[in-house]
Amino acid sequence: MNDIVAHESFSKAVRTSTTAAMPCVSFETGALRAPFPAHLPQGIYPREAPQIARTGAVRVDIGLAKIRRDVARAWQILMRFDCSEVLVIANQLEHHASRLPVAAGEALRCEIAALRAAAFVLQDDESAALAAALSARGPGANAATAHVALTVCRSVYWRCGDLERFHAVERSRLDSQPGRMQAISALFDLALDAAVALDQMRFNAARLLATDALEVGRRHIGKHVPADAFPACLIGQVLYEQGQVDEAEVLVVARMASIRQCCTLESALRAHRLLAQIAVGRGQASRARVILKEAETLAEQRGWPRLRAASLAQQIEIEAGSGRVEQAAQCLQRLAELAGEERASNHVSLEIARFHTIAGARVALARSPCTVDIASLRQVHRDMVWRGSLYAAVPVALLLVEALLVTEQRGEAVEVLVGLLRLAPSVGLHQTLVNCSARVAELIDAIVQQRIVPVSDTRELLPYAGMLLVHRQRDANLADEPLMAEATPRPHTGTHTGTGLSERERRIVELMGSGLSNKQIAGELCIAPETVKSHAKHLYAKLSVRNRTEAVTLVTRLGLIPIPRSLSA
Questions:
Q1: Which of 33, 43, 25, 13 is nearest to 140 (CA)?
Q2: Do 395 and 476 fall within a single domain?
Q3: Looking at residue 469, what is its pLDDT?
Q4: Which of 310-324, 335-349, 382-396 is predicted least confidently?
Q5: How does pLDDT run across 447-460, given as a tens digit for each residue?
Q6: What's the predicted TM-score (pTM) here?
Q7: Cα–Cα–Cα angle for 398, 266, 296, nearest 5°?
Q8: Per-residue pLDDT for 158 more than 60?
Q9: Phi-psi region of 30 (alpha: psi -120 to 50; beta: other; left: phi over 0)
Q10: Claim to verify: residue 388 and residue 519 sit in the same structural domain
C-alpha cells in the first residue's frame, strides 16, 4: 500500500472543504444518532502554513509530510497484523495533533482512533475497539476513516451477539474507484454479513455474500490478498456442511500460508477448525492434532487466547472420541487454567468459559458418564441460540443428546434429536449430523428402523435420516481404506473430485514437482510449451494458487500426486 492510498482518509480530510454528513453510533446504546455537521473547514495548507511557520509553532510543510509518512507506515504495519507496533505509533502521532491547525488536527485524531480500533479488534479486545471506533467517527473523519470505524463497530456487535445493533450500523458503500482502505472495509462488511447468515444457518445466503466479498477483493485490491481469507473460510464452512469436503479443503489450504503469516483471528480459528474436522472425518486423527497444535502456536504468537481455547477444545473432542481419556483430561486442565485467567475482554472470557463447559462434558462422557453436567450444557445451548449462533449450537445439541442418553433420559434425547432432524433438510444441515457420535448415530438408526417411536410424527424425516446414515457409513469406509490413510496418494485416474483437475493437469503438476520446466514438460508429454502454459493457467485457477510451488504443495497435501523429493527431503 503506497502513501497516497494509505493516507486517503487523513489527506482528503485536510484538503477537502466539504464532506457528506454521516450518522454516528451512540456509545451508550449502539444506535445511530443524528449526523455530524456536514462540513469541514477550508483547506489549510496554502493559507495557514506560512502563518504557523512564522510563529514557530511547527514547520507545517515538513511536519505534515512526516506525519503522513508515519500514518502510512502505521497502516502498512497493521496490514502485517503487528498491532502492538501500530498502537505505539498511534500514541506518538497523538502528540502531533495538538500542534496542527484545527481541521488537520481533528482529521489526524480521527485517523489515529481508526488505527487503534482496527488494532484492538485484531487483538480481540472488543471493548477497546468499540470505544476507539466511536471516537474515529468525529466531525473530522473522512469517508475512508469512517468506513473503517463502522466496520469495526459491526465486527464488535457481531462478536458480542448484539445483532440488533449490528444491523443498525450503516454499511460501507463503495465509490466507483475506491481506495484500498475503503475496499477492505467493504470486503469485511460483506464477510460479516456472510458470517451472520452462516450463524443463522442460511447457508446459501452466506455463500453468496462471502463470494461477493471475494469479488470485491479481486476487483479493487488484487488477487490472493490476506483479507480474503475470512470470506474464503466462510465459503469453506458452507461447502463442508453441504458435503463438498474436498472443495472446502482446497479453498482453505490455498490460503494457509497467508493465514500463518498475517490474518484475522476469525480466519485462523475457522481455517484450523475446518481442516482438523476434515482430517478427523477421513480417519487422520494425527494430522488433525498437528493442525490444532499449529493453531495453538499461532495463538501464542499473536496473543489470541480464544484461538488457543478453541484449539484445546477441539483436541479434547478428538482425544475423548478416540478413547484417549488421559490425553483429553490433560488438555482439559490446560483449558481450565486458560479459563481462569483474568482478561480485559469480558466477552472473550465468557466464550472461553463456554469452551471449557463443552469440553468438560466430553471428558465426563468418556470417563464417567453419570457425572456429566447436563444443566450447564443446557444453559450453554440456550445462550448460543439466544445470541443467534444457531450453527454453533448444533454440535452442543448433539452433545446434549448424548448426555441425556447416558443418563437414562431417552425421551428428552429423542425429542431434541427429532428437532434437529426436522430442521436439517430445510436449511441444508448435513455434514455435522453425518459426523455425529456413535451413540447419536445409533439413536438415529433406531428412529429410522422405527424401533423408537417419538411423540410426534416423524415419517417425513425418515428418508433424510436414512440418507445421513448411508453417508456416515460411506465416509467410514473411505476412512478405513489404505488409499485414504495419511500421506498416501489417492487414485490418479479421471477427473479428481474436489479440485476439478483433469488427468493431464494432474500429470503436469506432478512433473512440476519433479523440477521440470515448461519446455521439459512439453517434451515429456509430446505437446507444445504453449499448451503446457495454458494447462498451468487453468490448474492454478482451479486450485486458487499463484504459482507452481503452491500448486505442487497443495496437490501433494491432497494426496493427488506422490510427495516430490524436494518436499520430502
A1: 13
A2: yes
A3: 92
A4: 335-349
A5: 998 888 887 888 88
A6: 0.75
A7: 80
A8: yes
A9: left
A10: no
